[in-house]
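Lab channel / #folding
Pinned by the channel admin:
"Please post every new chain as: sequence first, then the structure tokens as a reply. Keep commentary short and put observations after the output so the thread stays searchable."

First post following the new format, from NK:
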Amino acid sequence: MRDGATAQLAGFAARLRFDDLPDAVVEHAKLCLLDTIGCGLFGSTLPWVEILRETIAAVDDGRRARLWGSGGAASVPNAALINGTAVHAFELDDLHPRSILHPGAVVVSAAMAAAAHTGSRSGRDLVTALVAGYEVGSRVGMSMGAAHLSQGWHPTGTHGTLAAAAGAGSMLGLGDDQMLHALGTAGSQSSGLMSAQFSSMVKRLNAGHAAQSGVTAALLAEHGFLGIPDLLENSYGGYLSTFSPSSDIALVTEGLGEDWQVLRVGFKPYSTNGSCHPAIDALLAMEAEHGITAADVDRVEIDCSTATFKHVGWPYEPVSVTSAQMNLPYIVAVVLADGDAFIDQFSPERITDPELIEFSRRVKVTADPEIDAAGDTARHLTRIAVFLHDGRVLRDERRHASGSAASPLPADAVERKFFKLARTAVPDDAAKRIRDLVATIDDLPDLADFASALAG
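Reply from TO:
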């Protein structure tokens, strides 16, 4: 076995077993699984996922792996593509803040596709694969942090390939060297541009492509295909040296197997970019305490990190649902008007409302060097000032968002979110069955019934 960060990470993912996982990790992994499935079921009903599903059906006769919510099936790699896209289809999926990775979309879809290929994996195997993928993707992402995002890369599309390869490789039972080559192949397929957030459907697809690429890399490694063995540490064309102007490779392995990054994965109460959530929390608190509405507000000023400013602070133009979900000025406007930022606030009709567009012009977002100086752990630090027509100024500062590890959603809130989303795709009794299966996933001897339940 080789030395180096890539080899250590591969060895960890290959050797991880369910009995290695602390109880808290297992329970949080189950919440991640439930949240991811809810997002995927809702996503399966959306137009961009329907386009993808119909396009793949026209060229893919495979029926080995089930598609969530639609009752259909596809080949193993294409099932990962479609289900991964569905999970990330409406900005609702889980988030590891420091890596800026949405791990559920890539890992769960890849692991379930790999399980369909093997046909003989248990619920404990799925939980183990989930944790392996979450740890690999989060740690690689942490080593670059916001510098990778600021370069214009979509971390779920890039780091997600490695997370998916680890999750799929775990389900396939890859050994150390095979897992090393799976990661080395997946990393060379990493892609995803943040310009996808403006006027396209592509951002959703980036997650599905990462899941598909990870599954493909794991299957190739299983059959002897060689990847880049020093993927992370190579100074020319290596993953870290190519994808980011700065990185800290020590973060890839520091505390590996002891400091569980899966426990830092949070769940979104709002269907928006995570960088917008602290401002939403602050606005909702102001509405609750002071009874303000959009009609009371003259203008809003927000200070944030440069990464957040680039990500969500640009002038709003109603060109797509994605652009509205990724735009802080629009989100400020709709939260003050509706008191929420969930599904209805991002309908095609709502995002083109002239009053909301006008209000968004009165929201000023500024990158604050002082916030930048606090480093990646302060990337979501947000200072907001709401100027009212009566002359008052309401101010708030939020370092973390509701749903993050620092301010977690209770398990019952995650469950309520699941039901709200799942019921858009499957009957109530089917949603309850899925919930029950997730709760007892570590008791399932195989995943056939679970996969069937997800198909609807």
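NK: The chain has two domains: 5-268+409-455, 274-398.
TO: also worth noting, Residues 123-144 form the longest helix (22 residues).
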